[in-house]
Amino acid sequence: MNVLILSCNTGEGHNAAGRALEEYLKCSGEKVEMLDFMKLASERTSRIVGGTYVSIAKITPHFFGFIYQLGMKVSNKRYKSPVYYANALMAKYLSEYLKKHTMDILVIPHLYPAETITYMKKRGLLRCKTLAIATDYTCIPFWEQHQYLHMLIHYSIREREERQLLFHLKHLHAFHGEELELF
Q1: pTM to 2 decimals?
Q2: ∠ CA(133), CA(151), CA(128), 5° rounding?
Q3: Which residues in the chain land under pLDDT 50?
Q4: Topology of domain 2-175, CATH
Q5: Do the beta carbons of residue 148 and residue 127 sit within 8 Å?
Q6: Sequence-separated (6 or more) residues with CB below 8 Å from residue 156
Q7: Residue 110 burial class via C-beta count within 10 angstroms: exposed 0-12, middle 13-18, buried 19 and up
Q8: How far is residue 86's CA from residue 108's CA, in Å, rounded to a whole number?
C-alpha cells in the first residue's frame, strides 16, 4: 500500500503524530512518504503559513484564542469557511504531485490538507482513500465540513466533546489504542 501523510509546518504536534504513523507503517512493510503539505506550493509558502500560525499562537495567544472562538461560532456544515477556500488553492499543487506519485491512501493529521482534500473529492479530482487523524486535544472548528474523510479520534476526545459538531461526520472512528482496520 502506498501511503502519503500530509502534515503542515504549524507546530510539531501534528508532525509528531504523522512521523509516528510513518514509522509504524514502514515497520509494517508499507510504502510511506510524509510531506509538509504547504511545500507542495513552495518552501516560501510553508515558511509564511507556518511562521504566521506559530507566531500568532506564541506571541498573541489571546488573539489566537479569539480566532479559534470565532471559528467555532461560524463553523457549520452548510457554509464553507475562509480557511476552506484558502486551502482549496492548494488543490492544483496536490493534483500535480499525485499525477507523479500514485497513492492508495492519504492520511491527514492537520486540518489544512483536509480542506484541500474535501475540495478535490467534492469535485471528483481525488479518488484514493483518505483518513484524517485528530491530533488536537479538543474539537476544533471546521472539521465538520469534511464529509469525504474518515476521521480517527481518540476515545477521550469523543467522550469529552460528543455534543460538538464534529460528531456529525459520517465516518467517525474512535479508538482506545488497539489496532483499527478501516479499509
Answers
A1: 0.74
A2: 95
A3: 154-155, 157-180, 182-183
A4: Rossmann fold (3.40.50)
A5: no
A6: none
A7: buried
A8: 17
